[in-house]
Design a protein that fits this description.
204 residues; alpha+beta; Jelly Rolls; Translation Initiation Factor IF3; 2 domains; 5-stranded antiparallel β-sheet; 4-stranded antiparallel β-sheet; 13 strands; 43% strand
Length: 204
Amino acid sequence: MKKFNLNELIEYNDSRFNPKVLINETAYRMVLMNLRQGQSVPEHANQSVVTVYALVGHVTFHGGTDTCELHAGEVVCLEPGIPHSLNAHEDTALFVIAAGKTRTPPEDEKLDLRDIPRPLRHPLVFAKLDAIAAGDSFVLVNDHDPVPLMRQIDSMRHGQAALEYIQRGPDIFRIRIRRIAPSRPSDVPVKEKSTSLVAEIGKA
């Protein structure tokens, strides 16, 4: 048995939002989220059902294509995999639980660039990234360390992807690219896309 006094755990940080993890188990996570007025939590997604209860304060809560105002005493619930974010309009404390039904992401697909002409490699990667949902990922296979590509992703899709090396040379490089936020209307497609090759991405 675990007992917490949430009112005593409310503690703000003037420079950034302050999450306090109370329980962190495989299928159950409990967090007290403290935000000063004007602070925000960037868009992210969780593979479990998320319940957010406002203890004190007022936030605007964005979940997928929906937006609602959340005041003290109110609660909102999200299905697995829905990107969400929030902005605090006053000092706020949120009690957050991620638990229950889990959306299992599909097994990572592979995008092997080694036999693809170099001018087409970057457009293929961007097309693949733009085609997957937040929370999903694919594994990039290449014959060299694609540092310029990673810089381009950070520049053109800033905050939308997380990159993790699985194998770092010397002859083969494998990088998991995970979408952590949905695309924006202002995103510009990479111009050199080849229609026929893009159609084959899902088969890679």
